[in-house]
Amino acid sequence: MAQVTLHTPISEEDVRKLEIGDVVYITGTIYTSRDMGHLRIKQALDEGESLPVDFKGGVIFHAGPVVKKHDDRWELVVIGPTTSIRMEPYADMIASLGVRVIIGKGGMAERSSQAFQKYGMVYLQAAPGCAVKLAGGVEQVESVHWIELGIPEALWVLKVKEFGPLVVAMDSKGRSIYRDLKEQAEAKIAAMFPEDQ
Amino acid sequence: MREIHVSEIKEMVRKLFLDANFYIGEDILAALKEARDNEPSEIGRSVLDMIIENHKVAREEQLAICQDTGMAVLFVELGQEVHIVGGDFREAINRGVEEAYKDGYLRKSVVDDPVFDRKNTRTNTPAIIYTDIVPGDKIRFLVTPKGFGSENMSALAMMKPADGPEGIKRFVVETIRKAGPNPCPPTIVGVGIGGTADKAFVLAKKATLRKVGEHNPDERYARLEKEILEEVNNLGIGPAGLGGRTTALAVNIEYFPTHIAGMPVAVNVCCHAARHAEAIL
């Protein structure tokens, strides 16, 4: 189990070195995006509208932060991951933007796993319900876009330093901790309730 | 008749939602520590360590344990000798929630219509209020900010009486298996059995709020709780769903009389934060 700090923008080479179980910290910039944000990106791409940020080599964090406003400046209060599987329908879209790292909770599915293999991407899990600890890695809120979606759903641009710890849960070789555990759990159920088969 | 002014209700609700979001229950913390000591998986132990550390910092700095500060749910027991004065009961509760979420820098996670516009109400209201009228002259509030990572993993099965305890076990265990990492294990699993479909769900949610370590007073149901917990923890989903022994901290069953033709079984999952607070006015 290796421990590494990735600096944004992140290269394909850096990502392909990672294996499931490795512990990662991120320094640089991360973008938050969840349900409405992903839909908004899709709408922008469909209408040929330019996106407010360049996602190439970037990190998307499935999160809706809690923020405080001071005059014209935003301060992050706490932050943590939301359930990523809701964003699975956008797997190909996110890959096409050049995103290298997705941070979330609970993993993505097969479409994403294939994209991770094809383009050189990884999925990192942040410890859920540890919003105060995770916030410690955020130095400042650089900017926000699409605030009309509501504070949790907006695209927050966060400057981070040693943000983590994050566990590589799906790597660029098609492996997934979630898929392995799911198969194990299904086998356990088959053993516990044999008359189901 | 005892008069209670709505401003007292508003203030109590405000305080309870702040407490619930910052201070984890002692019983949950104890259960997490015990789980950590018994967790064979290395990654499981480090997740539990981080969760325990987070509770400490949240308490010290009065910051929300989790960014999903949830939808406000209240179970209120209103004494029938109480006369509420000075305004509207429900409005007082909603204003109390609004103030807590404003003062405590808690996330506003409620949208107006669930299907079309989904516009944030910016107040984290309306709250969901269940009120029981009981004997006496007090008002008892049990509040829980319910996060949706876990709430989304809820399930209902309108089972046949013939399905029996084995059928119930299979349904609950399969529900937790399907949920996997999404409800932020280790979870508190609330199971409501009986009544009607809606009653079963209310029972299930109340069951998640029971003190960890307390069992159903009926020995047969207590045994079922223990067996289901054992089977859930056999699944190997573990803390944060990254693998391990501690998938659930507790399985709590609440039951109610039901119809001769049915056995409604509701599962309401609560995450490891299991935030709730209670007080009596």
Word description of this protein:
- The complex is a heterodimer of chains A (197) and B (281).
- Chain A is an alpha/beta fold.
- Chain A has a single domain, classed as fumarase (Alpha-Beta Barrel).
- Chain A is 27% helix and 31% strand.
- Chain A has six helices and nine strands.
- In chain A, the strands form two sheets. Chain A has a five-stranded mixed beta barrel. Chain A has a two-stranded antiparallel sheet with strand order 4-5.
- Chain A is globular.
- Chain B starts with a strand and ends with a strand.
- In chain B, the strands form three sheets. A four-stranded mixed beta sheet of chain B has the order 4-2-5-10. A four-stranded mixed beta sheet of chain B has the order 6-9-7-8. In chain B, strands 1-3 form a two-stranded parallel ribbon.
- Chain B is of the alpha/beta class and 281 residues long.
- The interface between A and B is large, with 45 and 52 residues.
Calculate Rg of chain B over CA atoms: 19 Å
Distance from N terminus to C terminus of chain A (CA atoms, Å) equals 37 Å
**Helices and strands of chain A: which structural class?**
alpha/beta
Taken from the alpha-carbon principal axes, the silhouette of chain B is: globular
Overall morphology of chain A? globular
Q: What is the CATH architecture annotation of the largest domain in chain B? A: 2-Layer Sandwich
Structural category of chain B is alpha/beta
Number of domains of chain B: 2
By CATH reckoning, the class of the largest domain in chain B would read: Alpha Beta
Q: If interface size is counted as residues with C-beta under 8 Å from the partner's C-beta, which chains form the largest one?
A: A-B, 45 and 52 residues
Residue-averaged pLDDT of chain B: 97
How would you name the oligomeric state of the polypeptide chains in this document? heterodimer
How large, in whole angstroms, is the Cα Rg of chain A? 17 Å
Largest sheet composition of chain B = 4 strands, mixed
Provide the low-confidence segments of chain B as ranges: none
Tell me the helix content of chain A.
25-40%
